[in-house]
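Design job #97: recover the sequence.
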């Protein structure tokens, strides 16, 4: 009789551990999703700013068609990317193209002095800082989630419940370029 109670007690404890682990992993997974949504909001704001910036530059540097086309192409690619890995790769391309676009202002003093361009470049710089902060929050949430699925006792149940490792919002090979705040000079 007492053996039955011990077995029942062990089963109850295991079920409690499984429910606890599952609920914690669900919460961590939701946090990752929310953090990626925050990054996505910032990226969409940047995507909305790009056409205005391109149009402003086009008025002063219309023969720089290749650079302008690269920015639009990179923006379209970034807008259609799905998931952290694709989004980070596409956003890296967009960041590079935007850097080249901003660099054009050095060659065109009238563009550099244009109030609309100055405002758009300032907004872009602010958005880049917000994106970096959102990206750090997302990567922190992913790190907590990945750690959570590897810690005991959740590690015993994570695979069974379908929890798998999530990818970080990686900056890839251009890490030093992207981590540096955009330099906007007027």
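Job complete. Output follows.
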């Amino acid at each position: 009789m007492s053996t039955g109670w011990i077995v029942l007690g062990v089963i109850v404890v295991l079920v409690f551990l499984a429910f606890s682990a599952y609920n914690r992993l669900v919460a961590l997974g939701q946090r990752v999703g929310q953090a990626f949504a925050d990054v996505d909001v910032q990226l969409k704001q940047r995507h909305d700013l790009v056409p205005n910036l391109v149009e402003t530059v086009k008025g002063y540097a219309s023969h720089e068609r290749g650079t302008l086309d690269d920015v639009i192409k990179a923006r379209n690619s970034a807008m259609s990317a799905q998931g952290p890995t694709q989004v980070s790769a596409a956003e890296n391309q967009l960041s590079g193209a935007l850097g080249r676009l901003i660099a054009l202002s050095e060659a065109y003093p009238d563009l550099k002095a244009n109030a609309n361009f100055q405002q758009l470049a300032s907004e872009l710089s602010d958005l880049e800082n917000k994106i970096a902060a959102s990206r750090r929050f997302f990567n922190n949430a992913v790190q907590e989630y990945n750690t959570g699925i590897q810690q005991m006792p959740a590690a015993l149940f994570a695979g069974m419940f379908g929890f798998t490792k999530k990818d970080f919002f990686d900056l890839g090979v251009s890490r030093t370029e992207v981590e540096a705040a955009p330099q906007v000079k007027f």
